[in-house]
Amino acid sequence: MRDYSKDFAEWRKKRAGVERPIYDNPADAGIETDFRVGQQVSFTNEYGVRFEPHVIMGFCKPELSGRCVYLNYDCYWFPAKLESLKPYRK
Questions:
Q1: Is the pLDDT score of 82 beyond 80?
Q2: What pTM does this model have?
Q3: How many Å apart are CA 46 and CA 13, to the nearest integer?
Q4: Whole-angstrom Cα distance, residue 89 to residue 28?
Q5: Average pLDDT, the chain
Q6: Cβ count within 10 A of residue 59
Q7: Contact of 60 with 78, CB cutoff 8 Å
Q8: Is 30's pLDDT higher than 80?
């Protein structure tokens, strides 16, 4: 699986101050969760297909239909919903 963390970091830097901020701490984004940046999670899409493991790279305020978690995958720029994530267990 490709690592998108460098792409995410560059994208995050380019959009700083332009659009909604990206936070490393979920509480700063107004989110109550035990998930943390760097944590591996399972992601289940709207069709019930599960993908794993993915790493959390950041958080945003849940203004985009409840989407607020950025993951290390090919759509790193499009946040996932909290309810679509579960802690990854091997």
A1: yes
A2: 0.92
A3: 29
A4: 27
A5: 93
A6: 26
A7: no
A8: yes
